[in-house]
Amino acid sequence: MPWVVRDAIDDINRAVGRRWQELDRLLPGPADLPAGCAAPLVASGANGRPAGLGVCRHQFVPADTLNQTWGTASQFSLTLRLREPDTSAALDELFAQWHDHLAGLPEAGAADSAAMVTWPARDVSGVNALLRCGMQALTVIAVRPAEPGGPTGPAAADGQEESAGLVIREAGPGDLDAVTEFEMGVIRFDAQFGAAIIRPATEALVRAETQAALARRPAWAWLAERDGQPVGLVHVQPPEHSGWIAGMTRPGVTVYLQTMFVRPGVRGSGVGAGLVRHVHGVLDARGVQTTLLHYALMNPLSAPFWNRMGYRPLWTGWEVRPAASLR
Ligand SMILES: CC(C)(COP(=O)(O)OP(=O)(O)OC[C@H]1O[C@@H](n2cnc3c(N)ncnc32)[C@H](O)[C@@H]1OP(=O)(O)O)[C@@H](O)C(=O)NCCC(=O)NCCS
After folding, report:
1. If you take atom 16 of ligand 1, which residue's CA is the nearest one?
2. How far is the CA of 273 from the centre of ligand 1 (A)?
3. Could you give the dihedral angle defined by the CA atoms of residues 241, 27, 192 and 71, in that order, rounded to the nearest 10 degrees?
4. How far apart are CA 168 and CA 274, in angstroms?
5. What is the pLDDT of residues 279-324, one digit of tens each?
6. 301 Cα: distance to centroid of ligand 1 (angstroms)
7. For 46-60, what is each residue's pLDDT tens digit?
8. Global pTM?
9. Residues contacting ligand 1 via CB (< 6 Å)
């Protein structure tokens, strides 16, 4: 990479790190830009300093991985760094260049493809530019910092769980059928909002992944039971398996809450809240500092539920499908 570009990247990363911290203290500090398919796209700025950079990456997600259930088979994602608080004009310039780049790629026209941007939720200055190029906000990465008062311990929630007639316990290898059913329940629910895409391999992959997760001790998966029947599930990826997303927030012990599901017939009776309160107690006691999760923006049940449970938006996932339909 020519030194001029390297210099511009370092300079802009520092500026963006400062701006992000002012916007939202749970965003990460300055991060380097990933390697892209070509040199970064550049938005012009004052005094010869770029106002913004964009790095495009092409990913072809294999059919035998669960990543193809959580997104399209071909993904063209743009990582953005915008220097000024008003990002609008620089974004328009970068999206125009990105449009021309994608228009020259036959694979960006495939039906099972998306152009994607993950944007800081509180950087509202970019929303109209994202809409102008035809993108839709599909998903949210939400964040919950651990209780400021320190660990509350699972015992703190026991009284409320008992009053809801719930037994909450860690799931084990013998729960493979129930946990797989609940994992598939979330995928089917989220598929209604475009956040998941059910593939021929999805169920077998979910079952294999669940089997591996339940074999670990501790399993970081909890079932709620009522009258001896499993009615709800929370499944968390432990810190050592959450590295793929931990860089999206401040440093520290971070986990990813991958699944939350309550059987349709018992929703709205406090099972979800009781289960999450219990899990938060365990996470706080295990020293987890930050919990991240995804929800589909159009899921009418998740945003209010997660907000009551102490989560709020950190990043918003924007997409246009197929990728070549970016305007
Ligand atoms: C989101 C979900 C886990 C919440 O679980 P839950 O057991 O319904 O949660 P609770 O009963 O503790 O709280 C749900 C809230 O909705 C209200 N509600 C009322 N009727 C409801 C109904 N038929 N369905 C869902 N919620 C209802 C509840 O009263 C409660 O609100 P309140 O706290 O203001 O009283 C559950 O709805 C679910 O499994 N949804 C489908 C999968 C999903 O969306 N998972 C999350 C993906 S990120």
Report:
1. 268
2. 8
3. -60
4. 9
5. 999 999 999 999 999 999 999 999 999 999 999 999 999 999 999 9
6. 6
7. 888 899 999 999 999
8. 0.94
9. 186, 189, 260-262, 267-273, 295, 299, 301-302, 305, 308
